[in-house]
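Case study 2.
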Amino acid sequence: MAKKVIHVSDAEAASNLASLLDRVSAGAEVIIERDSRPVAVVRPAEASRGRLLSESIPLAEAHAKELGYEPTMDADFAADLREIINSRKPRDLSAWD
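Prediction:
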């Protein structure tokens, strides 16, 4: 099945962004034009290649249940993981304004 391509003006994109993003989420590609010339393309993001920690924890718990015991995490790995998590900072998006 061919991907739906939608052409809109920059003004229309600005006033209907939420609606356009809904259509992109549904699989459409939006070409935003200024003076009938393409200036941007909005398409669905590529699927994530990783797994979120919130998804990993239930999987680990289910695996432990299957094993019948809780695997022990290496102490150094646990400390490294804690350090990584605690060092994360929110992204600075001020340049996007």
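The chain has four helices and three strands.
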